[in-house]
Amino acid sequence: MSAPKRFFVEKIQEEVVLAGEEYRHAKSVLRLRTGDEVTLLDGSGREYPAIVSSAEKGRLFLHVVGDRVSDAEPRAEIVLIAGLLKGDKTELVVQKATELGVTRVFVFSSKYCAAYMNDNKLERLRRVAHEAAKQCRRASAPEILYFDSLKGALEAGKPCACKLFACEFLTENEGTMSAIEAPCALVVGSEGGFSEEEFALAGSLGYRGVSLGKRILRAETAAIAMLAVAAHALGELG
Ligand code: SAM
Question: pTM score, two decimals?
């Protein structure tokens, strides 16, 4: 028997109505019927088992029957600060970041960034994060914010105790991925990479440069690799 399907809702109460996109998915794709069990999520880190009590055109009525803390929520706070990528590559990064347990994703534009952001794209990234959270059984999706400057994104990550900046032209490592501590902020550039001035700016804000090896990785590979190493070092993959 497959696990109950998961749905994000705005608010949890005894009777919950599923409408809009989540309703369409529940009805047309998953073909849920009265009596089926589902799991509701409100982004708080808790899960709420519920039963489909009835359905009408455009709405599914659910009766909440339980409440528990999710055991799949990340314990360590990991913030990914990633350059905006061309095409749908930022979606890929957000999806993988969600699976790897990232709590927040700050997407930025920078000097050599060739992609652009708009409201629809940002909304799409948030949807991707929610879908990935449901698929990997998290009870919350990472917060996704967009910054139109690298400086804004770096400043938003400043409260993190450990701040590492993946720099493709680094001559000497300033930090080490294996000694990572939470909360941490991990910075990865876009396809165009970083300028010397951007690297210096990051240094002035407390970010330490790290190399990801002798090969230049694609931006999406660099983000996923850096996150996987950090998640492992922080005990999130064990
Ligand atoms: N356009 C740059 C160039 O030609 O050198 C490459 C940028 S790379 C595709 C995108 C980002 O991935 C970089 O800004 C950096 O954050 C990260 N990255 C890729 N390979 C790296 C490496 N070997 N060490 C550190 N960071 C790396």
Answer: 0.95
